[in-house]
Amino acid sequence: MKATLDVLMSRLRMKQLQLLIALDDHKSLHQAASAMAMTQSAASKSLQELESMLDAPLFARSKTGMRPNPFGHCVIRYARLMATDLTALCQDMAEIRSGQGGHLAIGSIMGAVPEVLVPALEAMQTAQPNLSIEIVEDTSLRMLALLDDGRLDLAIGRALVSDQPARYQYEALGDEPVSVVVGHAHAAPRAREMTFADLAGYRWIVYPGQMPMHALLQRELDMAGLGMPPNAITTSSTFVTAAMLQRSAKLVSLLPTSVAALFARQRMLRILPVRMQSRQQTFGIVTRRGGTLSAAAGELIRLLRAGAAAG
Prior knowledge:
By secondary structure, the chain is an alpha/beta fold. It has eleven helices and twelve strands.
């Protein structure tokens, strides 16, 4: 029997999806059944019913335990998503009843935080002072995983870093220019113009290989006829980068220009006059395609659009 929406809506039980999650966590039918307070035979029967309903085996069974096959990974991902959404539903209703006004979880790349996300959040706090807001600053790839799991309502980043970008709704907001930065008291000369070759004697703080700014630095150095620095310090943390730059006269790094300008205004960092040859990176609003947005998420998107149009 082929699984259809009508079949799933009429026969699928949340208990079956919870069992799948437990099996994925424990890799054992006995342990999963124990975690679910079920007998092993009842758990086995429930799994068989689900596999029959979906017309596909979901696990490979062996002496070492049960491992999800490609069908299983697919169903488990959606099971976790549904469980997360139901948990969020209960939390939102509890917060609304208590007068807290609901919950909004947002992810953002660091370059969008100062001039894009913060002004929109200020407006949100004014309009909805009882709204609980959670902010995650991370790479686009990690935020997409959180979006898939239902842990974020929306993200400000890039969908193209995914191997399946069509799974997401993407709306461009703007560009993310990048600057070369050093500590405010750095020994680099205060020239009107500099090149990457002028920085050859300094030690670099770089981003991990999977991050777009690592590839950007690699391209810029390649165009300057230079290789990647052999003794680089690697971190994805904006705070670590800024703190190390501020205390050292021999370190240099890249930061999104909006973030660099924020630290420069506080006389913590200095932006060097190094012109980038690479094309500016773009970012935008990313949501799950086909997902339903909360009223708070919809309002934040409206404010982000308005800010992009005004800027």
